[in-house]
Amino acid sequence: MTELNRQAATIERATLGMGCFWGPDSRFGQLPGVIRTRVGYAGGTTTDPTYRTIGDHTETLEIEFDPEILSYEEILTVFWQNHDAAKDRFYKERQYISLLLYHSEEQKRIAYQIKTEQEQILGKEIQTEFQPYTVFYCAEHRHQKYFLRRFSKAMDSLLPLFPSDKAFVDSTIAARLNGFVREFGTLKDIRAEIHHWGLDPDNEHVLKELLENIKW
């Protein structure tokens, strides 16, 4: 239900690889301005990768965000401050490399600028691989909102609000709660933020009542 999601006049996208995609999904999902997140595979050449047959792709996180609330610069700062991008060797070849897929020449320009700034802060040469975005393959459902799915009682309350598992995965509330269960943000923060999502009063009430009654 898009009417339960944060509304935005403009939506931009960031696609990043920073190791196993479960953790970044939680870390970025709790940021105000993020509308939805999904995990998947990108950066390679093989078609239709899966977790078992990933080929030369990398585990990646795709973020849709409102640039009026959260800037691409801020996203990249979180990106580089929360994984070791100075490594030039990675476990399982390309699956867990540091990867940035830019969606425009402006994103590319900003990325190189922030990279230089972060190298000065970290005192290390960043080895992140840069590529233009071409295609993103969504990962299997079991990997989407991985940590939130471990709370079966909460899932029993959440899933009936959405017409499909995909709609649940793409929801703002799932992104926030997937961050909350990893101790990124609080339920109080989410309740306060919902008022600014541009929802009609009935749908705002639905989400606030959910947060009031949800069991873990």
From TrEMBL:
<protein>
    <recommendedName>
        <fullName>Peptide methionine sulfoxide reductase MsrA</fullName>
        <ecNumber>1.8.4.11</ecNumber>
    </recommendedName>
</protein>
<keyword id="KW-0560">Oxidoreductase</keyword>
<dbReference type="InterPro" id="IPR036509">
    <property type="entry name" value="Met_Sox_Rdtase_MsrA_sf"/>
</dbReference>
<dbReference type="GO" id="GO:0008113">
    <property type="term" value="F:peptide-methionine (S)-S-oxide reductase activity"/>
</dbReference>
<dbReference type="Pfam" id="PF01625">
    <property type="entry name" value="PMSR"/>
</dbReference>
<comment type="function">
    <text>Has an important function as a repair enzyme for proteins that have been inactivated by oxidation. Catalyzes the reversible oxidation-reduction of methionine sulfoxide in proteins to methionine.</text>
</comment>
<comment type="similarity">
    <text>Belongs to the MsrA Met sulfoxide reductase family.</text>
</comment>
<feature type="active site">
    <location>
        <position position="20"/>
    </location>
</feature>
<feature type="domain" description="Peptide methionine sulphoxide reductase MsrA">
    <location>
        <begin position="14"/>
        <end position="149"/>
    </location>
</feature>
<dbReference type="InterPro" id="IPR002569">
    <property type="entry name" value="Met_Sox_Rdtase_MsrA_dom"/>
</dbReference>
